[in-house]
Amino acid sequence: MNRRCGAVLCLSLSFCAPLCALTSSTLDGPSYFNSGKIKANIYHAFDLAYVTVNPLIPPTFEGANTTPINDRLKYIASKGYTHIQISPPIQTTPSVQYHDAWWVSYKPLICDLGYAADASTSPYYQKELEAAAVVLGKPLKDYSTYGVKIKMSDETERVVGYRLGSDRYGSAADLVTLIKNAKAYNLGIIVDVVFHQIGWQNEEFSENPVGYTFHAVNCSGPKIGSIKTTGIGLIDQSSLSNVHLNSKVSSLKPKPLVSAASVEATPTETTTTETSTGTTSAEAALVESAPVAAPAPVEVIPTPATNFIVPFDPYNRDVWQHGPVLNVNDPMVQTMAVGYLQLLHDIGVVGLRLDHVIATANEGGLGGLWAILAKSPDFPFGYAEVWSGNLKHLPAFGPVFPLEDFVFHFRLAECFVAYDKTVDLTKPEAIGNMPAVTFSVNHDIYPKVGNTLKNGFYSRSQHPDDDFDKAQSHLAIAYLCAKRDGSPLILRFEDERDNKKLIQRALAFRVLMEEKNAPHEYIVKLADDVFLIARQFGFVVINRGTTHSYRLNQGIIRDKFIPSVYIPDGSYDDLIDLGTERRGNYQLSNLNIEVSPMDAKFLVLSKPTYEQKSYDIVFKTVCGATQPTDQVCVAGSHPVLGDWWVRFDLLNGMTCSQSASNLGGLFPNWQSRPLRFPAGTSFGYRFAISNIGGVANTGVIRQSEKGGERHYMVNGDATVPENPPAAW
């Protein structure tokens, strides 16, 4: 997390920043999770247990593989993934009674962290943190550090906050076990964080749900309409350390936790089989002890005397559509959220995904969210979900943190699912020129996992094993992996159904191109259903057609005027996986390959005829004829430079902002991001104004600099001087 702007500056940032602040970003990148130098391939371990599976919880959908993440680590690392994203790991209303209840994990409860059997015993949560510390190998802070002390309506004080531990996924100790074992494979854990809404204690689904949560705090206010905020019931359990094994029925007896000191003095008993990593589950850190006296059957916890919740608006019921909206502008809520992030940091989490940020902004809470981030510990990696397919909705977020690229996702769906021939994937509409990482969002559009939109992925069949829907989704992932920028989040369901090894080949290609620091992609549409993506050290051919194969030879490459610097002369291997398995050896001089319907070929340059190099080029200009809210670009005779237009993803856009705390601070000096080209690339170019006053990008050049065309040939890393100065 970059601390260039502190809490005060964060709160003072304009919520209606000009579009260029997003699409051209800033030279220093976003304020938080400035991950531009981190190349991430993320395995989305959606709705998966950490170490052991709760037998009472059904799979996300029928037939889904429920193998715990801990038992997948070797496989995940072997495929080229660098990070694992997990679902929210905090306590919610027990989800065991609901089918397809993955969504319950996105409705966190605010809990009484100091809840104990009686005043003479340590809080259950403290014992769970001590057990997690044993696995971690170092002490954690006192439980009160990870919450906020508030006064309840009965004048008592309690420490409340988010409580690590989930009936679906595992305990705090289980999560620490996963983090430690993943690190051994050089895999970092990213946690999904929900700060927009909270859950109701009993939800709204029935008067008598099967299980209750015994220490949630009623923060949702009085009963409004059908929203139930009754007292908190208790189930027969003394801790949540193995709540994922016993949250449904009281006949399941939990193993009570003991203090860390007692664990150290007692031989550890293993209660599960050994995992693929050679370690046992986190329950190995727990020991049997004398039963703890069962808590009283019912305790009604009063509402806290603080404004935790945005008031319910009966005229705008959509505000509470996912549960009571958390008031992140309240200082108490901010302290509570910071405490939770501190705990994640302390146990070794390396990154965050901020859920549903656009809803937080719609409730006026974006400043509060920024204040939380400014006060929280540093995370080297992270990004935010802003569910919108329209670029004009995103300017407030782009300078602050990397975003999931839903704009790009919707264009991919239009191309691969709706077969919209007007979608230009050679220069696609997307979030665009951000120095930090951007993301695809294939994982959020999936049968029974997200809201499947019309003409979205899997919208035709609504079934994960449909051959057409699966193939088109996989091809979209292959396209994303072939590009230089962006880090696909590949849902585990996609990976598991990779019978053509499309994703495996795509990831391998991506990793090899990153190793070579390959240039930005040169994309050509070979036919209505066929795309070629060239990266100098390899190229990809994607055939989205359903009936006909496509045959590529050197004659087609020549006829399409693909520069030889992007597909250089030499020998090419047909890539199978990230290891040594490759198929065939093709000479460019007699290239003749066939790409089957709904498939792709990944060819990597194994023996170039000549040494291959590529370089970063930065363009600069002074443009006093503009305002900081305008959009300036460098347009030229090359696809990366828009073929004399401004790209819809603004890859060839320029910025006058050094940082998010200094938007427009370099004006009237404009600068491009580094654009990478093969050595020997030559092109013409000129500077141009594409949009005025923050208007959404239309791809149209409104004004070009006066004078003739400029020319450049790439022969080394360079900042191209503005010589002669541009005249407007």
Automatic annotation (TrEMBL):
Single Gene Ontology MF annotation: starch binding
Listed Pfam families: CBM_20
Extent of the signal sequence: 1-21
Keywords assigned by UniProt, alphabetized: Calcium, Signal
Domain of life: Bacteria
Gene3D superfamilies per UniProt: Glycosidases, Immunoglobulins
BP terms from Gene Ontology: carbohydrate metabolic process
Domain Glycosyl hydrolase family 13 catalytic: 55-510
InterPro entries named among the record's database cross-references: Carb-bd-like_fold, CBM20, GH, GH13_cat_dom, Ig-like_fold
Protein name as annotated: Glycosyl hydrolase family 13 catalytic domain-containing protein
Region (Disordered): 260-280
PANTHER family found in the cross-reference section: ALPHA-AMYLASE FAMILY MEMBER
